[in-house]
Specification:
Order of helices and strands: EEEHEEHHHEHEHEEHH
Number of helices: 8
Structural class: alpha/beta
Strand content: 25-35%
Largest sheet: 6 strands, mixed
Helix content: 25-40%
Length: 245
């Protein structure tokens, strides 16, 4: 398999603060890699190194020729919408950046608005949307051009249960696409279990493990009396980051 992104002993510092420490991690073409870790672990920094939004302070961060700008869809944690543009206008505008216009752009916009229950919001200015609907628009804008590479930074944040279910279904469908490469950051173990080919556990700027979910999970043993429903991957994850189980 060809590598799409590669971090080679990559570190990232902001003044005296070290956000990432000697990360070795590669993303292969066609795989879904989930960056799993608590808030502030460094997941966003890893993703920004991959796509060139940040430069490594030491080591190297490389994107292959597969990751040209027009082939990437990036959904950041921060809002990337235009407050003074209407929802559907934004979709058509971003589609046009990638050469998608006319009937094709309208059909794709309408399908995505329907998938995420945004039809009634389509003529609203983005500044009039709820926080959850802004997050949905953030995601929809990142996939309007049907990119073969997706970088999704906690796209489920601030979504209600129904919207998270719609997002999970969409991500599952996207992950099945032939040759599609997805890097998804989350702090929800269930997201990793359901989607990942591999899970990279990141904590306090360090990569603690990277493997298939089944290989990361601990062998069956006694379940915690406090949390009897916790699955093997969740217990393995909590063990790696040193959290109470």
């Amino acid at each position: 398999m060809r590598k799409v992104f590669e971090l080679d002993h990559a570190s990232l510092r902001f003044g005296r603060f070290t956000a990432l420490r000697e990360i070795d991690l590669a993303v292969e073409e066609g795989e879904t890699l989930v960056l799993l870790g608590p808030n502030g672990a460094g997941k966003t920094c890893v993703m920004k190194l991959m796509c060139g939004l940040l430069a490594a302070s030491a080591g190297a961060a490389r994107a292959s020729s597969l990751a040209s700008l027009g082939r990437i869809g990036y959904c950041p944690q921060e809002s990337a919408v235009w407050d003074n543009l209407r929802v559907k206008e934004q979709l058509l505008l971003v589609a046009s950046f990638y050469g998608i216009r006319g009937t094709m752009a309208r059909r794709r916009s309408e399908a995505l608005l329907s998938d995420f229950s945004l039809e009634e919001e389509s003529h609203k200015l983005a500044r009039e949307l709820s926080r959850g609907n802004r997050r949905k628009l953030n995601f929809v804008l990142s996939v309007i051009h049907d990119p073969p590479i997706l970088l999704l930074d906690e796209p489920e944040a601030e979504l209600d249960i129904e919207s998270r279910a719609a997002l999970s279904a969409t991500l599952a469908s996207l992950a099945k696409g032939a040759g599609r490469t997805i890097v998804l950051s989350t702090h929800h173990v269930s997201e990793a279990e359901g989607l990942a080919d591999r899970v990279a556990v990141i904590h306090r700027g360090r990569l603690l493990a990277c493997a298939r979910p089944a290989d990361l999970a601990k062998p069956s043993g006694e379940l915690s009396p406090e949390f009897p429903s916790r699955g093997r991957l969740e217990r393995a994850y909590l063990g790696l980051i040193g959290a109470p189980q």
